[in-house]
Amino acid sequence: MKASCAKRFRSAASPRLLLASPALLALVIAEPTLAANCSELSGAQIPASAIALPTSGARVTAATLNPGGGSAPQTFGPHCDLSVEIAPVDPSAPSIKMRIVLPEQWNSKAMMYGGGGYNGTVPNVAGNVPAGPIDQPTPLGRGYAVFASDSGHVANPVHPGDFAWNEEALANYGHDALKKTRDTAMYLIEQRYGQPPVRSYFAGGSTGGREALAVVQQWPKDFQGAIVLYPAYNAAALDLQFGRITRALAAPGAYPSLEKRAALLEAAMQACDGLDGVRDRVISHQAACNAQFDPATAKLNGRPLRCRDGADTGSSCLSDAQINALKVFDTPIRFSQPLASGERGYPGFNTWGTDLGRPGEGLQLVVNRLGLNTLQPDYPMPVHGTGFAEGAPYHSGFWDEWVRYFVTRNPAFNSLTLDPTDLGPWQARVDALSLRQDVNQTDLSAFVANGGKILMAHGTSDQLVSTRATAEYYRRVQQDMGVGQTRRFMRYYEIPGYAHAASTVFNAAWDSLTALENWVERGVTPKRQVVTDTVAVPGRTRPLCEYPGWPKYKRRGDVNDASSFVCVKSHIGLN
């Protein structure tokens, strides 16, 4: 059946559907008539008029009908897998490459995934939402049409920021590719099924979390719900904080080795682990730890963490130079003048109790790379292998790329010479970038009017995006929308021990999609949400506490069971 025929059928049938029983109506919605088979979509052209932002149209470059697969409970059925290219207006700009999977048994819903870092690759649309559980089906397995894009460029593995030379590519990375990808997906979904989705959701973490906030702020009628994890929403301000941290770590003797960072983490564990009522190798009362821990006076196994006389005398202590650099990590940056986006600074990180890297293997190597890595920042920035900043801290590599390709557009520029607190001649350029990258709008009335809901979560041990920044955004929304109204459409949870996307302390898995579906589609507000550790103590659970709550042990019950904890609120360190 062609799309036009399917539309006529739906129009003629709609009065009968209105009178149908709920069970029959659900059956009709769950199993729509396919308007075009998979092979018919090969080579399909998407007109530029179908995409709200300027493009030269789009084209399906490959269409493959894949059989079902996966392992229970994460199985999926047959689906049409489309590769698509969205053509730019500027012929010198790269195209947007996207992928969409269209299940034969469609649930009449769509899911868009966000990217990460500088993007440049298409996320796995057959995979799970960020921090998704392994005991529940993925969106594709639930019957969603799932799509995502590379945001408008193919990543250079050595210099992933070099796409910013091109203005259209930069605009696509900022926000524009999100709308272009979504509109293209809607066109193809209707071609395949003869109808648009009845619900659309967005899920992303880090840059993808920024993108999730971007779509609900800028195109509030496109999505009815968003899963927002560790969002880098004020990206330009974060980049400037990266620069401040990088310059501190680049000072003589300031860079701590993996062994020294392991000593710092252990000292924080010994001082702060019991603040939540139990010593379980997870610091749950992070605000209290931030307030009372000081590496200059802390003890490790009963001995001072600070090296004797502040000199660098061993691998199990910190010198004064290293303590000073780490305190920069812990404290906010303040700008000499506000950015054009309105940001006046960026908070510090939960440095005390965060795994910034330590000796280990497997997943620990990922945590190390996302932390302070293995080499001190320098000029030129140390880069090993095929990935950027595999030697220098991730923050430093990200800052270096941003300064050279986004700000100065001079690949030979020494990023260590740019003072992020006083930008001088680069102020205007950073202001312009802040308007393109930051998504800090807090009036979400239009999204709420469209029935939109947001589930947002962030690990307190995140080493790349500060939970203090996410909490600050949440409080801004509460201030502008009202506390009561905010709670009607938004939840924010902090996850103790969880780092940036991966952790060997508490690697969180959360069935956020089911919670979002229940809230949007059934009006069931999120009650007691539980997060599961999949690495350090596989299977242990903790309650997800609404900010500013944290999980406190009841002093009875299984320490690995969420039911043994109660969420309590603390206002320590909220300012």
From TrEMBL:
GO molecular function, one term: hydrolase activity
Top-level taxon of origin: Bacteria
Protein name: Tannase/feruloyl esterase family alpha/beta hydrolase
Lineage: Bacteria, Pseudomonadati, Pseudomonadota, Gammaproteobacteria, Pseudomonadales
InterPro entries the UniProt entry points to: Tannase/feruloyl_esterase
Signal sequence, start to end: 1-35
Key words, A-Z: Disulfide bond, Hydrolase, Serine esterase, Signal
Keyword Protein transport: no
